[in-house]
Amino acid sequence: MLLKDFNTYVDMAIEARDLVRGAANQEIPGVKEDVEQLEHIKVTTITVLNQAGADQLGRPIGTYVTIESPPLKINDPYVRDEIIQTMEKSMHAMIGDYLKPQDTVLLVGLGNWRAVADALGPKFIEYSPITRHYHSYAPDALVQGMRPICGIAPGVLGITGLETFEVIKGIVEKVKPALLVVVDALAAQNVERIGTSVQMSNTGIQPGSGVGNARHAIRQEDLGVPVIAIGCPTIVSAAVIANEAVKKFCLNSGASYNENASLNSIKEILSPFGGSMGVTPKEIDEIIENSARIISMGVARSLFPGISEEQLVLYAT
User: Fold this and answer.
1) 295 has a pLDDT exceeding 80
2) Pick from 29, 141, 289, 299: most CB atoms within 10 A?
3) Using an 8 Å Cβ cutoff, are 1 and 199 in contact?
4) 165 within 8 A of 155, measured Cβ to Cβ
5) Who contacts 78 (Cβ-Cβ below 8 Å, separation ≥6)?
6) CATH architecture under which domain 2-315 falls
């Protein structure tokens, strides 16, 4: 999402909040924040209350939950369980009472399965329990209380020749789900967020916005179905890292820092790549694997209350 006042793309609401609040050095009107520190994780809930807050934060009115944890590549079982429990609680708060036990839910895994850093969405579908076909062809194979769930990883325009929104809209019109859960890899403005944060929101998602390649937004206004968007940061712009390094060098050496000169120099260095390059850590395959498994189970536990994790994994694709 583009923050107009800063002319920068920011995927995470918590980073947009930090950027706007830091510049103004005051709280943001129309934006409410609640912070909860649990044993292993920190949960920040940002609620955009009105249009004034939405304009300031560059985010639609709604709720944004950010779960911050130790690096997911460590795969700590206690951290994992706490994230899943928090996701389940947040999903229930966002869904409210509009989802009935018999309602169909469509899971969408955005991203490019050929690029590891962008494969979070397809991996999420791989590890999610899919049950809609059982309801039609083998109902006796289902655990009692399992709702119909279907899922798709629609790929990206460069592979399929189809806009993601077109694919999803066609499926929504045919299947008529009561809810969409969309998972995608996000771009962060801070390297420390890669593999340590999960964001959830009830306002939809705009694929590619964090890297300046925004596609058609996937949101309730256009699809007629409530959308819960979930993401994990997997990439940071090289320009952001380089600028922070220049700033830190100037601070440590006593040299004067000129942001415009720094950014213009970085842009010149990155010009062979169109002025843009993304950086991801070498452990990104572990981060994607663990994040996808955690997110899929957090979503599954919220959609199949009372059904054990051992039973849910049997229905994964």
Assistant:
1) yes
2) 299
3) no
4) no
5) 39, 40
6) 3-Layer(aba) Sandwich (3.40)
